[in-house]
Every structure is written in C-alpha cells, then in structure tokens.
Fold these 2 entries.
Entry 1:
Amino acid sequence: MVLRKKSPPPGKSQASAKSPRWSPSDYRFMALAFAEADNVKGKTLPNPAVGAVLVKRGRVIGRGGTRPAGQAHAEIVALEQAGAQALGSTLYVTLEPCSHHGRTPPCSLAVIAAGVAKVVVAIRDPNPKVGGRGLRQLRRAGLEVSVGLMEEEARERYAGFFFFITKSRPQIMVKIAQSLDGRINDRPGARTSITGKSAQAFSHGLRARADAILIGAETLRRDNPDLTPRLVKGPPPEVLILTRSGRLPRKSKVFAPDRQSATVVIGGSGKSLPAWVEHIELPLELTAKPPEGLVASAAGRVTSSKISGKAESARSKIRDRKTALNDLDLAKALLAIFATRGYHSVLVEGGRSVWKVFLNSGLFDQLLILTAPKLMSKGESWEAVLSQDWGKSLNFRKFASLGTDFLAEFGTSDAQG
Ligand SMILES: NC(=O)c1ccc[n+]([C@@H]2O[C@H](COP(=O)([O-])OP(=O)(O)OC[C@H]3O[C@@H](n4cnc5c(N)ncnc54)[C@H](OP(=O)(O)O)[C@@H]3O)[C@@H](O)[C@H]2O)c1
C-alpha cells in the first residue's frame, strides 16, 4: 500500500495525480469503473473486484463489475449490456483484461471479438498468467490501448490482490491506535476514542481496501464496534471475531441482519449465534489460555503473580516461548482460514490478544501505529503482551502526519511460515 502524507479516502486520490494524458471525461469514466468495482467488492474472491465501463460517443452503453468466481468478468458484463453497440466503443477497465483460459474464457478475446476500438486500463495485472499479455493481445489485434489512468488509485485498491499473487497468501495488516505513552484505552477494558478525524478516515480507508477485519471477542463485548468504512463510504469488509467462550452479545452491531458484508465467528461452539452468522471451529489446543502465572496488571503489564528473582526470569523465558509457539500455531491456523475464504488482505484491528497472535508469530506484513498526542497513564499498554524478542524483524517504512496525530508504518523483512 502506498501511504501519502495525508491519505485521502479511496476515490479521491486521482485529483492529486491528474495527468494531461487524460481528459476530464477519461477520469469520469474510470471513476465510474471504480464505482462498479466497489459494488462487487467482497463478492468476487478469490478474483479481484474489477469494474468496467463501455462508452460510445460520450455515452455509457455498458457497465458492470466482476461476477462471483467462475462467472463473467467485468468486461464481459459490460459487453453483454452493450451488445452490438460495442462496435467502435471505448472500454475503461480498472485492471488489465485477462488473456488466459481460467474458469472463464479470456476477456481480451471477447473485447477484440466485440469490435471495441480503444481500451483504457488503470493498471497492469502482475499475475504471471496475465502480466502484459492481455495488453499485447489487444494491441496486436489493432486496438488502441493506454495504461495508467488513475494508476495510484488502482495500486492502493489492488495492493492486497497484488500481494496475494506474488506471495500466494493474504496480506496481514496490524493496526494499533495508541496514546503517546503507548496505551490503547484510558482505563482497562474501556471504549476510548483515541485518534482524531483524519486518522480515523485513514483507518476507514484501510477497512475499505481490506477483504476482512479481525477483532477479539472482548473488543466486541466492550466496544460494540460497527467496523464499516463509513467515513470514506467504501465497500465494507467481512468481520471476523475470535473467541473461545463464544460469549458474544446478539445485539452487537456486527450481527445486524441488514449488514452488507458477512460476519464470521472463529472459535467457540457456535451455539446461539444468529442464523445468518457463519461459524468456523478452531481446534481446542489452539484456543488454550496463556500459560498459568501470566496475569495482566491494571496498567496492562504482564507479570507473574507467584514467582520472583532468577527463577522468575528462567520461567518467564519458558512461558514466553510457549506463548510464542501457541501464537505461531494459531496465526498459521487463522492464515489457513483466510486462504480458504479467498481473502487477499486482512486488517487486524485488535485488541491485545489478537494483535499478540500475529506480532509474536511474525506472521504479519504491515504494522501501522497511529499515535495521538495525549497521555492515558491509567490505560492498558499493547506492548505488554508481546514476547521478549518481539520486533527483531521489523523495518521502519514510513512516517506521516494525520491531522493532530501521526502514523508510523513498519514492515517485516519476511514473515515466517
Ligand atoms: N486502541 C486500539 O487500536 C484498540 C483496538 C481494538 C480494541 N481496543 C481496546 O482493547 C480492549 C479489548 O482488548 P483485549 O485485549 O482485552 O481483548 P481482545 O483482544 O479484543 O479479545 C480478547 C478475547 O479474544 C478471544 N481470544 C483470545 N485469544 C484466543 C484464542 N487463542 N483462541 C480463541 N479466542 C481467543 C477471547 O474471547 P472469549 O473471552 O470470548 O473467549 C478473549 O477474551 C478494549 O478496551 C478495546 O477498546 C483498542
């Protein structure tokens, strides 16, 4: 993902990157194609959500987004709508048309066969099966092809898909909002709004681009979060809730029947969930509580209640190792679930027990820390649940101001597993 100093919500970035190569109507039609992509986000996995618009003499004659996997791609939906009018038209498409036989025939051939005259593509597809071949095919058939309209927008939207294509696993983004003194709430378990509007809009942009958000059951019980990208009006990701007890209030916002995206509970028995909520079991050994002796103090620091001195140091090393092993196993199991669901990117929003799983195991790709200039000394600190050798593979990537807050972004050299 590309971070700018101030991150506008999805759909706005083209304004800052206008190029004389394109006319205002080119921008308008590509923005419409992105809107079509938004309409189908979450319904196309494991395929990317692509949008296409066909235009003739300044009029839209066909438009659409990718249908569920195995069905028509966006270009075909638009071509079907346009019918014979497609002859001599211009196609605006948010990702390079495919050129290979997958579950559906190549879009590039359909575009050629329909007599489309010009194709405008936001970004090339890094998929080795496509990688410029679709564009070459179109050009060889005599179509005028241009690439790069709203490319920055496309790069951000498809960051998860591009990651997935190159690494064969979903991208894991861990996001933490904290006070200057590293606290995540103003008192243990309290719901606390930490950052200002700009940082919240940035976070909602992350939500809009992710396929799913993962939270812990305690965050659900305490905060009853909505987890939609409402500040940027983007497509809502699926919501995943990690639990062992299964104790989840039915009146939670994420269980409302009119939500636009799925809610999935991972762990617990799955009993007494609303019928429209999906449930995925976790093996009992993965949901085991942290080793005995670990208790969180009021300030959230993990301490031992029983032991002290040298013995404590030795035992805490063993506990650390055990916890890290548990975290690694659980992180791998969660990654397998994400892969089965076809996600390209997952945003881990917290709280501490969920961050811990990914941060301790090293199975994450981006750590985004949003810091507000305030002190919350009575709150819980997130670093308290991390193992001693945590953070060794972290690389600093970016620093940016977001209103009164600031963002620090870290990456990992390469995740294990
Ligand atoms: N500042 C921020 O960015 C931010 C973000 C999110 C949350 N928060 C704050 O964080 C606090 C809550 O965080 P928290 O750390 O107390 O709780 P949490 O991480 O949100 O959730 C903890 C719960 O997750 C489930 N869980 C943990 N490990 C598990 C495992 N191995 N297998 C299955 N389920 C497991 C358990 O659910 P059951 O109890 O149901 O078994 C556990 O009680 C709240 O104050 C919230 O406002 C802050």
Note: The first strand starts at residue 51 and ends at 56.
Entry 2:
Amino acid sequence: MKSAMMTPDLLPGVELAMVFAERKCPELKGIKHAWCDECDAAHDQEPRQLSHTYHRPKTICWARAITDQAVEHQIGICLHEYGHLLAGDCGSVVDDEAGADLAVLDRMGVEIRYVGPHELQTVELGDLS
Ligand SMILES: [Zn+2]
Ligand SMILES: [Zn+2]
C-alpha cells in the first residue's frame, strides 16, 4: 500500500499546508504528521473524521483515507488541525471547532469553509500566499 510507505506530510495538500502554516506561525515548526490507526477507526464510523490532534504529543494524526481527498480538502483539514493547536496554546480563542477556524483566520488570514455531503473543510488555493 502506497500510504504505508510515505508519511502524511508528503501528500501534496498536507505538505503545502505545512509549509504555509510554518511560515505564518513559526511556533508550529516541529509539529509532526503521522498515520493513526485510531483515526482510521474513527473514519470508518464517521466519514468526515480524517484527522485529529492532541492524541500524540506535537503530532497531527491522519486517517489513511485522506490520500483519496482533493488537495483543497487536505489543506483545509490540515490548517483546521493547526488551528486547534494554535487555539489550545495561545488561549485567546476557545479551542473548539469554530475556535480552531478562527485561529487560522486570525493568524494565517485564511478562511476555512465546509462543503460537500460530508461537510469537509476546504480553502481557496489563492488564499495561500
Ligand atoms: Zn491519533
Ligand atoms: Zn476540529
């Protein structure tokens, strides 16, 4: 299986989001990306569950199914997870779903929207400049 050979940060959308997020928020450097069996199990129960954080230290966990998602969704989900980390750290916004997106808007200037039958996070690629 291809996804077993590579780490999630080599996916085009995750890599783009990581480089962008680290440029906007240098304190995010050192956050790692890893496949997670619990994330896979959560995805099997609920299709929109593709990522989580605060499971392993300084790590964003990914379900392997993220490899099937479009780059815009990979970026949107990845930035949302970074938003949880930013919200949890700085304390100026509440670390809930809306708070994570607010942290991304505040700190990176990117609006996260929700589209499709599973209400997946997405971004405008042009916003990542
Ligand atoms: Zn996990
Ligand atoms: Zn979330």
Note: The first helix runs from residue 2 to 5.
